[in-house]
Amino acid sequence: MSDSFDVIVIGSGPGGYVCAIRAAQLGLKVACVEKSATLGGTCLNVGCIPSKALLQSSEEFDKAGHALKDHGVLVDGVKLDLARMQARKGEVVAANTKGVEFLFRKNKVTWLKGTGRITAPGTVDVDGTSYATKNIIIATGSDSVPLPGVTVDEKQIVTSTGALELEKVPGHLVVIGAGVIGLELGSVWRRLGAEVTVIEFLDRIVPGMDNEVATAFQRILQKQGLKFRLGMKVTGASTAADGVTLTMEPAKGGAAETLTVDIVLVAIGRRPYTEGLGLEEVGVALDERKRVKTDAHYATNVPGIYAIGDVIAGAMLAHKAEDEGVALAEILAGQAGHVNYGAIPGVVYTWPEVASVGQTEEELKAAGVAYTVGKFPFTANGRARAMGDTDGFVKILADKATDRLLGAHIIGPDAGTLIAELTTAIEFGASAEDVGRICHAHPTLSEVVKEAALAAEGRALHI
Ligand code: FAD
Ligand code: NAI
């Protein structure tokens, strides 16, 4: 036995690294096992951060080529330097992953480099060296769901990881799956000049998102040139030097068809990653979707073994993983860690952004809850007009009897920032009237939030 710890976290994604830092802050002796060459997990290396870097860069390119003209700014000869764009993305990723390394040193978290395997409760093997620990935390995250018949080579048929690394703008990119990854990365390559077709099994995009918002979202993306084939099932793919030929058929039955394109992005969801962890041997139970089963305190069925983040149930989001990491570290230090799952925002970083928190209208209907709706469009907001970004609206759902906020859905400029106010309001149990009576600076986009709250009581001012 080499060394002993209070806590060993396996995986250094946003769940694992934040948990390690918080546990160390609380005085525990902590190690974090990571098999990749850099810290930060999916999010920092091949997820949130590189995708947001490319979304930002492609947005600048798109603006220079189109939107700036409306502002009277004429930019001649806009050209794409994709190699520089990709290099910048690499620099952004490196700054973030190095940042986590710095935080580990600062907080005295030991990075155990290698692959972690649980050999018994209280023992973790890292590439042949055994470490003793009072608590083990599984934070091994997720990877992409494969599609039978469509074999990923990360060159012509890619997951999000390959789609972030393309060295050439594809002539025609097909995205399988109209979810968050497909629409964000589809937007990147569309803005950079690719023809983009999104093939989705269901008859709508972004399942789970408020219907009205999803419909508006699809319309806006179509205006930007994305094409959608809804209700279609991809049944196979074959690659050749000059492209990929997909076979597909209507999900509800009908004639098969083929489509030959340059690149195919498979983005049909992510699944928990527990390969090689030794869970079966130590008897850690999984649920029906192979996620590590935990109780309300993140404990598995094996004493001393806990799990957080994408590998357990719930939204696969970095901030959900982080908050679970903090809650669990506090529980292990004898405090009362807690996550309010009713107030976790979700953001799609397209343009415009789409953001939501709490329940959708469909969920309220299904639960038989009586509610009021307040809606206000960005077209009626002075700042949005000044920016030239008037697509979208804020929609607020409040309890009909008590006026308490139950859900908020925004499609529009900076929706991801605007949702923070409504998340805070829901966390504090605010009513729509509370939000409507708060003074919002003029002229800001946040006035659309205030007006939507007022609209829930039928008293919006500027419409
Ligand atoms: P991960 O980040 O997946 O980290 C797990 C780590 O564990 C990995 O580094 C892995 O190498 C390591 N590991 C696994 N097994 C072992 C082992 N046996 N030994 C040692 N190390 C091991 N979420 C958002 O909230 N916002 C976004 O904008 C966003 N964008 C995304 C974009 C893309 C393209 C993708 C793919 C995901 C995105 N996500 C986003 C989701 C987000 O990345 C995940 O929810 C988040 O990373 C989950 O964190 P985690 O700590 O649970 O696991
Ligand atoms: P997703 O679950 O968001 O969407 C997958 C889509 O694929 C769904 O619309 C589904 O109906 C469709 N689908 C499933 N099987 C199909 C098939 N055989 N053929 C055609 N369509 C099919 O999954 P996605 O986009 O892969 O993202 C995975 C996770 O990563 C998300 O759940 C999200 O939590 C996280 N993520 C978050 C981001 C953010 O917060 N901005 C950005 C990117 C990812």
Number of strands: 22
Ligand inventory reads: flavin-adenine dinucleotide, 1,4-dihydronicotinamide adenine dinucleotide
Share of residues in strands: 25-35%
**Tally of individual helices:** 14
What does this protein look like?
By secondary structure, the chain is of the alpha/beta class. It has 3 domains: 4-144 and 271-339, FAD/NAD(P)-binding domain; 157-268, FAD/NAD(P)-binding domain, CATH 3.50.50; 343-455, FAD/NAD-linked reductase, C-terminal dimerisation domain (Enolase-like, domain 1), CATH 3.30.390.30. Helix content is 34%, strand content 25%. It is built from 14 helices and 22 strands. The chain has helices spanning 14-25, 41-46, 48-70, 82-106, 160-163, 180-191, 211-223, 279-282, 318-332, 361-367, 382-387, 415-427, 432-437, 446-455; strands spanning 4-10, 30-34, 110-113, 116-120, 123-126, 129-138, 142-144, 157-158, 172-176, 195-200, 227-230, 232-240, 243-250, 257-261, 263-266, 270-272, 305-307, 346-348, 353-358, 371-377, 393-399, 405-412. Strands 1, 2, 3, 4, 5, 6 and 17 form a 7-stranded mixed sheet that branches. A 5-stranded parallel sheet has the order 8-15-9-10-11. The longest helix has 25 residues, at 82-106. The radius of gyration is 23 Å and the shape is globular. The model has no long low-confidence stretch (mean pLDDT 97). The site of flavin-adenine dinucleotide (FAD) has 37 residues, from helix 1, strand 2, helix 2, helix 3 and helix 9.
